[in-house]
Amino acid sequence: MEEQLSEARILELKGVLKRLTAGASYRRMLAAHEQGRPICVASAAIPVEVLYAMDVYPVFPESLAAIAAGIGKAEEFFEEAKRRGFSPSICSYTRCGLGISWCQKSAFGPIPEPDIFITDVSVCCLHVTWWAYLEDHFQKPTYYMDMPATDDPWDPDYVAYYEAQIKGMVEFVEENTSAKFELERLKQALHYSDQAGLYWKRILELRKKRPSPVSFRSVAGEILPLVTALGDKDCADFYQALYEIYRDQARQGSCPAKGGEKYRLIWNGIPIWHHLQVITYFEEKGANFVWEPYTALSWGNKTPSGRLDPEEPFRSLAIKYTNVLTNMPLEKRFRYFDEAIKEYQVDGLVMFSNRSCRPQSIGQDEVVELVREAHDLPVLIFEGDQADPEGFNMAEAKNRIDGFIEILEARRR
Amino acid sequence: MVIQEFRNAFERRHDLCMSMKREGKGIIGCFYGAVPKEVIHAAGLIPVQLLEDRTERSEEHSGLLPFLCGMSKNVAGQIYQGKYSYLDGIVVGTVCDTNRHVFDIWVYRKVAPFLRLLRTPAKADREALEFYAKDLRKLASELGRISGVEANGDRLRQSVELFNENRALVEEFQSRRESMGINAREGIFVVASSLILPVERHTQLLRTLLSEERPPEAPQEDKPRVYISALNFNMALDLVSLVERYGGEVAGFDLHQSARYACDPIPLDDEDPFLCVAKGYLRRVPIPGVYEFEKRAEALKRELERTEARGIIFLSQLYCDAYAMEHAILMEKMNRWGIPYLKLEAEDSPGSLEQLNVRVQSFIESLS
Asked: d(Cα A170, Cα A152) in Å, to the nearest integer?
């Protein structure tokens, strides 16, 4: 049996984690700008490894919006969007992200003027409209990582088309900034990305243990570097350190659920950033989230082998980034739930019907239908918004959670 | 007068399709305007755009989430109610997340014998054109298996010519509508029916309409003239009524759906007609974000100048984030040019616009 981590080692590992906190990432951005590195306003799910390989610093408005919402500093950005006539029915990341761009500041302080914009086209249509607006309004060079909507993301033609887009992205960055491309650096970035993805996967697998040592509330924040910093060595170190810490906690049998882990749950959807205490409330009731499509299927090494191949960097990135969950037929999406329910010994599902994210919310009822047919598990459906707290009532949420826990309890008896 | 036939066709579209079906014709639903109808036509099938219908509250049958747009809910509801039972298939071209992902549910629920999501690039460079043309060829072959007609290059070229001719006639109608003494309400039906009638029939009706002797134009009162930019036909018709009630006149209208169809002609400048269709659709159909905002705003400005409209009303359907975004962005452009505008957002239900009547009234008065 392996020994517990020493205090000194834990401190050392926590030091590694501190390098990529949200605040640290903000300071890194300022430093990168001072060093003269190009700044790119990027959408989530672009192959960010390429930017790190080219010394371009990416800023992700969606992540900044989630952080602003998480620390209660998003209001002024929503107000700015409202003042400019942007309807509240538009995605809250988009409204908040645009607010950040107009105000040229994040929740932590001013942000430098960007040099270029790059967006992904597949995750949602607003990724196109939003960046088209940025291009039009701020008049900066903009690149669209084209990945048409599909229900067959595994088609070789489709993957090849996206691979050409990645090469096009390299040309775009070279044409519009001082950055230069070197294949060896991209291979290195892929190696770091692969390591980060590998340790992330190991962390998620620790959640199969009873009790799971991992709190969804914690991983919701810890996923940030996986969105923003893949390709950076610090990102690989971050997940290795995080894995060591969680593995140690798993050995000790620690668990975020108060009074021990009575129920193991799935959360479907983006976290409710403005009320993360919803998750804590579940934990207080003895319910622990052990699997989420958002953490398990949307980020990390999304290749069939679970690894990236640094020797075939473009191909490997294309296979990874075309693997978009919401581009898969509903039966396929259900199969992921089916496997997770069995492997993670799940007692119930919480589905977040997120009015901002149509791709994640449409079809959710059908997946629930399939889950109920196959597993007869209780399901709680929340309606709300990922970043805009407007209309969200915590007291009401608690009532619903209480009712759900009672159902879980009754089934246990 | 032929003008009534457009409205009859539009309002009785399900009956018309049922009767075509009984005659043995194959019918394919297009969801929405980003589906190249030419390819469906070339395969010997009739393309029919899936459209909202207010005769029943079909959206209540959709089972879709409350925060999705009424149009998608309404169309889905009509499908579940069996109103589209005559369809041999549905082809979806992505214009927004809702229309793209409702497709997944339709596949799961097997709502039609043939369901196809087109892979439509957001770019129009050589790689994108070839990628899209390849998917169109595949679609043509799949449709050919339904109809038994091979949608080969020659047939597609002929279909493109037919649709181009129809587009040109729609454009001619739009430019001559007022001088022909046809009001905006009737005009909306002329354009809307282009989305549901067989192209040959619509062209024939348009030819007749354009060659008709019309009564001489009555002298116009000096009414504030406004231009309407709206997506939903029922809501556009409601808005016409409101504008007229408050003493305004609708000088022109840009129904986004028809704008997608009746945009520029498809250039037949390549040996491969599939590539021509790709060129005609990619970044040429005014889908928010994919179509340049500046170009879209310039086109609206030209229309305002042509129709001598003093202001523009943007009408969005509640929860349509694509047009909510586009309208906010177009407002910036209108501000820059000093063009008066009004942005309205409402649900498609009888009376929903009535709640906004004061805003319409004050906008019309401000233009007087």
From this structure: 26
